[in-house]
Design a protein that fits this description.
The complex is a heterodimer.
Chain A lengths: L3 E4 L2 E5 L4 E7 L4 E9 L6 E7 L4 E4 L2 E6 L4 E6 L8 E9 L4 E3 L3 E6 L1
Parallel strand pairs in A: 2-11
Antiparallel strand pairs in A: 1-3, 3-8, 4-5, 4-9, 6-7, 7-8, 9-10, 9-11
Chain B lengths: L4 E3 L2 E4 L5 E6 L6 E8 L3 E9 L2 E4 L8 E7 L2 E6 L8 E8 L8 E2 L3 E5 L1
The chains are: A mainly beta, B mainly beta.
Amino acid sequence: GENVEQHPSTLSVQEGDSAVIKCTYSDSASNYFPWYKQELEKGPQLIIDIRSNVGEKKDQRIAVTLNKTAKHFSLHITETQPEDSAVYFCAASIAGNQFYFGTGTSLTVIP
Amino acid sequence: DAGVIQSPRHEVTEMGQEVTLRCKPISGHDYLFWYRQTMMRGLELLIYFNNNVPIDDSGMPEDRFSAKMPNASFSTLKIQPSEPRDSAVYFCASSLTGPNYGYTFGSGTRLTVV
């Protein structure tokens, strides 16, 4: 099955700086890559996703890039704010099958 | 829409007791998923349904776990008998278009088995 690795496991940045979280996947058939944000005592919330026919997608301060050749994708958060502090999960999915989640990155934005 | 609704939010039970977790998916969503989250194992898919029919239950840890979806607006996850190692946060999620599109999670049920 698919194996998704996520790095780093923890990340601290100063408010206003950028944060980058990276994930790799193993199965070249994976074609959908969502990112979720989980705040304390809440369920994961979809924040952005990308499909394999797209190399980059942006939504305000967040962006995701995908390199199919290298089988990795990344989440970029610019101009970080304290409310960006949360655990972020990447996932990969093969059409018609389940999501395979990374192990999560705990992001702390220091005011 | 109120989103995916799970109950209870917290459950503390003694080892050996039966536990039932409940989920109401978003109206119109035809996929429903049960996940378990622990520090050690992260997010694990237990089972998912399409149009109330179980599609893949390979993630269900053992026979002590069972899940049902009697109709489009309700699902249960039952553990009988419960064990301390079942302690985790259990999430329900639903999706409109299928398992390879983003889905919406509920707030979870934190289960503690003592």
